[in-house]
Hints:
Elements: H1 3-11, E1 15-19, E2 22-25, E3 55-60, E4 66-69, H2 70-75, E5 78-86, E6 109-118, H3 119-126, E7 134-143, E8 159-166, H4 167-170, E9 178-183, E10 186-187, E11 197-199, E12 212-218, H5 225-229, E13 232-233, E14 241-242, E15 249-254, E16 260-261, E17 266-273, E18 279-285, E19 293-294, E20 296-297, E21 307-313, E22 319-329, E23 352-358
Parallel strand pairs: 3-12, 16-23
Antiparallel strand pairs: 1-2, 3-4, 5-6, 6-9, 7-8, 7-12, 9-10, 9-11, 13-14, 15-17, 17-21, 18-19, 18-22, 20-21, 22-23
Amino acid sequence: MTVADDLESARAALEMINPAPYNAEAPPEALVGDITPTELHYVRSNFPLPTHNGTLEIGGAVDRPTALTLDDLRALPVHHEAVTLECAGNGRLDMRPLPTGEPWGDYAVSTARWTGARLSDVLALARPTAEGVDVRFEGADRGPYHLQAILPDTDQDDLTFVRALPLAEAADPAAAILVAYEMNGEPLRPDHGAPFRLVVPHWYAVASVKWLKRIDVLTEPFTGEFQTGHYIYQWPDRPHEAVSLMRVRARITDPFPGATLPLGPYTVRGKAWSGNGPVTQVEVSLTGEGEWHPAQLEPPKGPFQWQDWSFSWVDGQVGRHTLRARATDAAGNVQPDVPPWNRLGYGNNAIEVLYVDRH
Length: 359
């Protein structure tokens, strides 16, 4: 079987939205289980699949510049984390007016079990100096950028994917950031960042740089097209903000939109997550302006993954019904009714509305 055949097989179950660079949503059934099977995990890329020389270089403001291979990473203490990753553009199609950017529906979110070395351990090998401020992460992917570059002097014909995190967070073991080399117990596949990638819990997935090639400790705050150009909230009436932590969100996974349900009791089920800590409450509404009813929220199975919730719907009558679900997180954030519109269409965590028919 050729590499192209392997890729086609790995992508067969996904809902492709762009063939080049390849971007695809998870199918609806991917949100049912605790862990998303690898073949159902959504894929987000800004450039075509790159080649990688198998080496991760660490430099910049460090006492000991270092180069690591996959075997070197495997020799470090092994950590496993179940992490929910959501594209910052998830739900863009629900915004009005429609923003620019990839036309993501509502299924650019998945949860996988990642295995790798802690970023804090990798950085410790290189010994960042006291002057360090940010940590820059460079992927091997590069090429023409399909959206207009925002920062001046940006070469749209040859752009590399680069992001950064504050050094204090990157070097903190409690942040549980991984340089991951396995996904769901298997070596990373090309679409998911082989041979190794970042996995940054709680942040929108743009921070989890794939095909990780180089890490540099910087002595000044980082600026770059994918940090301070794109992946920012460009508000119409207030200063721009960087895209960072995932916003609180609840999704209905059962029933599917437009389903026809039998009369009698029915259990509505879903998932909820937030980058600001665990979800503490999920509520369900059965009418457009009706009251909100508390759902049964399951405790987190891990600190960085979505939570299950359910609601017993006992009195549904014949006809069409609307279902809405909203979540509240530990920081007190509540889902809004209307998407928080911004020019590039990021961070849509508005309350989901779907309808079902009962006969």
